[in-house]
Structure formats: structure tokens, C-alpha cells
Specification:
7 strands, Thiol Ester Dehydrase, Chain A, alpha+beta, 2 helices, seven-stranded antiparallel β-sheet, 16% helix
């Protein structure tokens, strides 16, 4: 599969201002696209991302949604900062099949001084495979 036009390889360490390997560097490759106020994460479902039945592991999809929604919150806050997850709700809607392209979409519903509320979808070629909503703590600790 070729990566869809407009997507670039996501280097999460570089994006966050460090060069140390972290969890996200082990699950990819992942890609990003800045779509206005809605930055997105996308990836091709590869064998190491799948469960024994050959479909994208639920934990992989939840990780992508967690990070994708945090990116959307960062855009709403005009810059990356440390925004740990407080609560999440996920609904699995369809399988993410091996070899397919999945990408996030969503919106920041509301922010307060200390909390961000974001919801979105993980979309595949035939429509959404997951929906999710999250609450994030806004720490005001800037990420370079």
C-alpha cells in the first residue's frame, strides 16, 4: 500500500522536543497530516499491529485515538503541552483489517482552565471502525 498523499511520517520525539524513544516509536510507522484545526494520525494496519485473528488490535486503535485526540486538543490550545488522559470512552464499530489505512478525525468540544473535552472517529476505507471521546487534564506545561 502506498501512503495517501499529504501524509508525512510522524516522529513523535521530534514533535515533542526530545530524541528519546518512547512507546509511540515502537508501534508504527505512524503518519500525520495537519488538516486545519484537526491534526490527524494515520497508519496502514500491519501484521505487528494485529491480534491473532489478523485484525487491528483494540489496544492499538485506542492508543491512536488517545494520541490523535490529544493532537486535536493541542491545536485548540494553540500549541503542544502535556495533556494526560483522565478518562476515555471507546466504541469498536468495525474491524480494522490488515493492509487497510486508518485515520483519525475529531473535534475539541470544550476547554476549561484545566480540562479539555475531545471526541472523534478512527476511520477506515468503509467508514468508522471506532468512536471515542476523551477528557484530558490541561497542565500548561509546554512541549517544545
Amino acid at each position: 500500500m502506498s501512503i495517501p498523499e499529504g501524509w508525512e511520517l510522524l516522529d513523535i520525539g521530534k514533535r515533542l522536543g526530545n530524541d528519546k524513544p518512547d512507546f509511540m516509536s515502537h508501534i508504527g510507522p505512524l503518519y500525520t497530516r495537519d488538516n486545519g484545526d484537526m491534526p490527524q494520525i494515520g497508519f496502514e494496519v500491519l501484521p505487528h499491529m494485529c491480534n491473532p485473528m489478523g485484525i487491528c488490535h483494540g489496544g492499538m486503535m485506542m492508543t491512536i485515538m488517545d494520541t490523535g485526540l490529544a493532537f486535536i486538543l493541542h491545536a485548540a490550545l494553540d500549541g503542544a503541552q502535556f495533556t494526560p488522559s483522565v478518562s476515555f470512552n471507546f466504541d469498536f464499530l468495525a474491524p480494522g483489517k490488515l493492509g487497510t489505512w486508518l485515520e483519525t478525525s475529531g473535534t475539541c468540544k470544550r476547554t476549561t482552565k484545566r480540562t479539555g473535552f475531545v471526541s472523534g472517529l478512527l476511520n477506515g476505507p468503509d467508514g468508522p471502525v471506532m468512536s471515542g471521546s476523551g477528557i484530558f487534564k490541561i497542565t500548561n506545561q509546554k512541549i517544545s
